[in-house]
Amino acid sequence: MYRVTREMKFCYGHRLINYEGKCRHLHGHNGRVLVTLESPTLDHRGMLIDFADIKAVLQQWIDDTLDHNMLLCKDDPLVPILRERGERHYVMETNPTAENIARLIFERGREAGLPIVEVTLWETDTCHASFQGPLTITAVDVQANANGRVVAYG
């Protein structure tokens, strides 16, 4: 089995609702994401995937969607205030914990056709969370369009 991992970075703010610790307050992180892809085969170039293709697909989405954004749960009372004032924010179905953000990135990559098996999000230098899923896509030739969507895989 072949594996490749790409590291990406982004800055984000969040807070946790229904939580008594200090993370219930608005605060920010310099996040570091490790995205691991896996396949039993390589493409015609001898690669699982070109690292530039991971960047074109996933880093672009992270930059556009999560970077320098306030990540909030849909039930957070701050959401309507930010919406009313035109402030940038991203609404999640769940509390924006490191675990749930890792899963969000995992799911976005899978939707784009990448054979991701694990995403690890480092919130700080000493704390990280991971989300893993089974391999359902095999390695092949990847072509991303201008929107970062994989248009040819296989």
UniProtKB/TrEMBL annotation:
Pathway: Purine metabolism; 7-cyano-7-deazaguanine biosynthesis. Its EC number is 4.1.2.50. Pfam families: PTPS. Binds 1 zinc ion per subunit. The active site is at 23 (proton acceptor), 68 (charge relay system), 123 (charge relay system). Its cofactor is Zn(2+). Belongs to the PTPS family. QueD subfamily. This is 6-carboxy-5,6,7,8-tetrahydropterin synthase.
